[in-house]
Amino acid sequence: MGSLQLLPPTASAHAADMDWLFAALLGTSAFILLLVFGLMILFCVRYRKNSKVERGNRLGRTWRVEVAWTTATFIAFLGLYFWGAELYVDIHSPPKDATDIYVVGKQWMWKIEHPGGQREIDTLHVPVGRPVRLVLTSEDVIHDFAIPAFRIRQDALPGRYETLWFTPTEVGDYRLFCAEFCGTWHARMGGSVVVMQPSDFQRWLDSQDPGPSLAQEGEALFRSYGCSGCHGGAGTVRAPRLEGLFGRPVPLEDGRTVIADDRYIRDSILMPKAEIAAGYPPVMPSFAGQIGEDDLLKLVAYIKSLADGTAGTSQAGSVERPAQ
Amino acid sequence: MTSATVTGKPDEPVVATRNYLTEGGVTLRSWLLTRDHKRIAILYTLSITVFFFVGGAAATLIRLNLVTPSGIFTPDIYNRLFTLHGIVMVWFFLIPSIPNTMGNFLIPLMIGAKDLAFPRLNLLSWYLYVGAGLLALFAILIGGVDTGWTFYTPFSSLYSNGYVVLALAAVLAVGFSSILTGLNFIVTTHRMRAPGMTWYRLPVFVWSNYATSVIMVLATPVLAITLILVAAERLLKVGIFDPALGGDPLLFQHLFWFYSHPAVYIMILPGFGVISEIVPCFARKPLFGYKFVVWSSIAISVIGFFVWAHHMFVAGISLYAGLVFSLLSYVIAVPSAIKVFNWTATLHKGWISFDAPMLYALGFIGLFTIGGLTGLFVANLAFDVHVTDTYFVVAHFHYIMVGGMVSAYFGGLHYWWPKVTGRLYPEWWARIAALLIFFGFNLTFFPQFILGYLGMERRYYSYPPEFQAWNILSSAGASVLAAGYALPFFYLGWSLFRGKRAGSNPWAATGLEWQTSSPPPTHNFDRMPTVTRPPYQYRPEPEPQDV
Amino acid sequence: MSEAGPLPRPEPQYATTDQQAEAATFGMWVFLATEILFFGGLLLAYTWLRASHPAGVAEAGRHTKIVIGSVNTLVLLTSSLTMALAVHAAEQGRRKALTRLLAVTALLGLLFLGLKGYEYHGEWTEHLVPGLNFHEDGPHARTIELFYFLYFLLTGIHGIHVTIGIGLIVWLALRARRGSFSSGYYTPVEVTGLYWHFVDVVWIFLYPLIYLVGRSGP
Amino acid sequence: MTGIPRSYLFTWAALVALLAATLGLAYVPMPGPLNIVLALGISVAKALLVLALFMKLFRAPALTRAAAAAGLFWLAVLFALSATDYLTRKVDPVGDLSAPTGREHRQADR
């Protein structure tokens, strides 16, 4: 039986900020609570039925009192709102140099893939002091990736990507939970986040069965699903070339232009007829239902890696990092 | 100046010989086909008591399971227990609790009417409630549901292995019951008031139930259609909430919370009404800032519709939507705070006595204040990202709904018990129960705030061992709380037969309901009242009513 | 001018028949407010589908049977007219006219349901019933399925409302023939009329949302 | 008097005319969302005719109109506040994973 712990470990920059916000909320609440309880107890004792205390000169103009305390509480509340909102915007604005780690939730495990191809289940290894961005999705129901020590969590929804970022500040093992009810073993869908010194982390990466990187695996899938038949080599008469595509604007048949981002590539695999690149016949079949979320991520990573570096995004760079 | 607000009602004998319990016969048939709002209120009281104990039994098992980190039950059983607890407590206890029992009984009495506007609809509403309740119990008996009361898709529509469609049907039916009740209250409040009963002479209890009814009538249909969509999706395996089919699970959450957040106010506004009756009566003072209390109820029922997506801050809504909904959530905290300040100010320079209803009311103010203040925490964007779906949220809404609404329910039950039954309850037992409930409640739920901030997730049948100490405290508190809730069941039952005769107005309270005999006659007033004064014209010393 | 009709005493909870009539009318309006939100949930779902998959919804719209849909709109609009005339006849205490107009309204309602049933039959044979009998190729197959999912819910729930309305109107017609209404008491006719017109209003919005989508497209 | 009130007949005629108009306009290609805007505009006109004249709303007591308005107001709340989410779930146009503020707003076939 554990002791009566009061605060969770504080292991990220955001967690420290959050504890200050918590303190402010607690302070405001304690003030109001003491005011209300104090007055209630005072009145209950002083004005109990049998007390002979003077009761003349009651508050007459009630609306002045009402307006005063309404305004006061509202201003206090607004201050708290802006503080929380600022932090919220902050945890939704990852730095550009964050490392992307892919997380797929499924009943009842977290499958995690590092950019170098290292895989783990229910455990996430990260280096201390470096920003990490998680790209979350789910294969079945809604899950939620929650790390109390970092004071963050985010639902992982099937069919789309959500992100979550943090910069760990303390080395250690922290709890990882699934926070959105997802079925029978919901309570067991969790594990730990291991924050390591960068050198230890590098050693850990090296010690893992490297496996092919996401992009390399994507390349193999690119062939096995038959994509290369049209999109590779001589086939590119019927289909657009994918080299250098990622991150560039793509003119569409219907006159619009979209940026070839993850969303576009994913949609183009699943729903090729939705946004047809200008000048090409709409002949590509849909792969919806045939490619799982895991494989989609790999294909996207591969197509990203084909961007010849000029796309200039950190992701493309990190994906191309050779497997150790 | 007298304590009475009506003219024209002569005093009556202590024991009313002719009352709604005896008039019209005492056969089962005369009860099951009754159109008398007071008898229907009794039927409701009996049936929600059954569901209160069903939901309470599930809660007891949940707290039992959480005594050890590895859990006692299998996860499938545990998941069914908390789903059962949620569905039964939300739809079969809290939502109908005060409106359908006390509201039904008192609104016509308080406004000086003979009955609700549509007595048949009222009875139909009770039958829908009972039918829905039986359907829900049936679904539980044949195997249960494991979706949680929120029915999130695509889990509920495609993956759950419980009897989801049956449960959805039960909730749908009870939803129609609550729409009919709301409709009845709205029309009654508008059209059935006694001569002289202007809007600003209405007791706050009537205003609160009116505000509640607006929510019932305008939010519940959205729940109904949402549940139909989920059921259709589950039956046909096609639907707009399933991302695998091109649908959007967030659409479900928007529709669901469009109902379910306002429903939270269905579960607390009537409680505000009860407290606003009790506090002036036992402080022997008019309610402080009557109009502010009234309009804050109305404000809550309207703004309550504007805040729903604060349940979805981590669910994948846009950043902008998060900012908007958080701001609106802070706005709605203001009218709630106004009420707390007003009740406190009502005590100022009063002549306060501490009978059981007042103890419940003071307990309500304390617990609701804590619940409301923690509402500021969870309405805060960044804070919510850390605690949503944890025990912090669980503790927060239990402070509002159990600490708040159930305290108000018991307070009202004691306050109007003499009116309903014609008998007094045993005062000392009632005070002991009120104290047990207050302390048991805090012991149960305060540790859950700490657990939540530590990161204990809700709906977990097992948890990391470092959380055990707080969980044991919480479960210990739950046993005190259970004793507190069981106690009234016995002494109130006893008082039905052995309690002292009450007389028509044992609290020397103002308000029309106290101007008729206890129990009231079937048509409420022997001579229809005419109202000439605002409510809560209390003066220091309780005097014999009427001169 | 009017036949001498009974003037029933108000129910015990009311002081006067006027109060009773006002309560009934207001009650119906509150109920209709509920109904707005009931259909509103479905309309939000529809709006989401249409906003997120415009091309697919347009193609699905072209699958709908515009002739039946338009004729049915005409039928319902006309039934609203006859219902309004029925209320007018009731106001004036003209028993025969009231009975006949109610009967015509009910028949128009039945005609609407008959046509709707024929339309459903057509959709079944064209494999457009999601979950039970759906087969569609092409890039927008899933959107078309979702569109028809909402189509059947919208029209099905509307159809249930029409059915209930017909039941009420038949009951009113029988009572009217027995002479239960008079120029002093016709609240049930008026209240049912409100309900029937509301069902018509719902259809007025469903018609363009279902049948007129994508008609100007390829 | 036994005559059919003409106002009802005129209302009906107007409704039928509007029906014909909306049906015809639906086949005319128009830029952008103009088709649906027109169609819904005509629907609103038709609904107002039914509400105002058949349901006698505009002659009804204020309370009745308030009930109808309440239904529409809350419907508007449902749509407007849902829109704060749906209209702002945009994809951030950087060649990157959809940025954290943005969500995929077009996730399936279109």
TrEMBL record, chain A:
Q: What is its main location?
A: membrane
InterPro entries, per this entry? CcO_II (IPR045187), CcO_II-like_C (IPR002429), Copper_CuA (IPR001505), Cupredoxin (IPR008972), Cyt_c-like_dom (IPR009056), Cyt_c-like_dom_sf (IPR036909), Cyt_c_oxidase_su2 (IPR014222), Cyt_c_oxidase_su2_TM_dom (IPR011759)
- Provide the Cytochrome oxidase subunit II copper A binding domain boundaries: 96-207
Name all Cytochrome c domain ranges.
Answer: 213-307
For whether the record's keyword set contains Hydrolase, the answer is no
The note describing how and how many cofactors are bound reads: Binds a copper A center.
Q: How does it sit in the membrane?
A: Multi-pass membrane protein
Compartments (UniProt record): Cell membrane; Membrane
- What transmembrane ranges does the database entry give? 20-45, 66-84
**Which NCBIfam families does the entry mention?**
CoxB (TIGR02866)
Family, per the entry?
Answer: Belongs to the cytochrome c oxidase subunit 2 family.
Q: What is this protein called?
A: Cytochrome c oxidase subunit 2
Organism from which the protein derives: Azospirillum endophyticum
The gene is coxB
Automatic annotation (TrEMBL), chain B:
> PANTHER family per the record?
CYTOCHROME C OXIDASE SUBUNIT 1
A Pfam match is COX1
Q: Which residues form the Cytochrome oxidase subunit I profile domain?
A: 25-532
What family is reported? Belongs to the heme-copper respiratory oxidase family.
- Give the UniProt keywords, A-Z: Cell membrane, Copper, Electron transport, Heme, Iron, Membrane, Metal-binding, Respiratory chain, Translocase, Transmembrane, Transmembrane helix, Transport
Function, as annotated, reads: Cytochrome c oxidase is the component of the respiratory chain that catalyzes the reduction of oxygen to water. Subunits 1-3 form the functional core of the enzyme complex. CO I is the catalytic subunit of the enzyme. Electrons originating in cytochrome c are transferred via the copper A center of subunit 2 and heme A of subunit 1 to the bimetallic center formed by heme A3 and copper B.
Q: Which InterPro entries match?
A: Cyt_c_oxase-like_su1_dom, Cyt_c_oxase-like_su1_sf, Cyt_C_Oxase_1, Cyt_c_Oxase_su1_BS, Cyt_c_oxidase_su1_bac
> Which PROSITE patterns does the UniProt record give?
COX1, COX1_CUB
The listed locations are: Cell membrane; Membrane
Q: Which organism is it from?
A: Azospirillum endophyticum
Chief place of localization: membrane
Region feature (Disordered): 513-547
**How is this protein situated with respect to the membrane?**
Multi-pass membrane protein
What is the protein's name according to its record?
Cytochrome c oxidase subunit 1
From TrEMBL, chain C:
Q: Which domain of life is it from?
A: Bacteria
Which compartment or compartments is the protein found in? Cell membrane; Membrane
**Record flagged with keyword Signal:** no
Ranges for domain Heme-copper oxidase subunit III family profile come to: 1-215
| Transmembrane spans | 26-46, 66-90, 97-115, 148-174, 194-214
Annotated membrane topology is: Multi-pass membrane protein
> Which Pfam families does the annotation name?
COX3
The record, for InterPro entries, names: Cyt_c/ubiquinol_Oxase_su3, Cyt_c_oxidase-like_su3, Cyt_c_oxidase_su3-like_sf, Cyt_c_oxidase_su3_a-hlx
PROSITE patterns attached here? COX3
Q: Does the keyword Membrane apply?
A: yes
Which keywords does UniProt give here? Membrane, Transmembrane, Transmembrane helix
Family that this chain belongs to: Belongs to the cytochrome c oxidase subunit 3 family.
- Output this protein's name: Cytochrome c oxidase subunit 3 family protein
TrEMBL record, chain D:
Q: Name one Pfam family in it.
A: COX4_pro
UniProt entry keywords in alphabetical sequence:
Cell membrane, Membrane, Transmembrane, Transmembrane helix
Subcellular localization: Cell membrane
Please give the start and end residues of each transmembrane region.
36-55, 62-83
Q: How does it sit in the membrane?
A: Multi-pass membrane protein
Out of the domains of life, which is the source? Bacteria
The entry's protein name is: Cytochrome C oxidase subunit IV family protein
| Organism encoding this protein | Azospirillum endophyticum
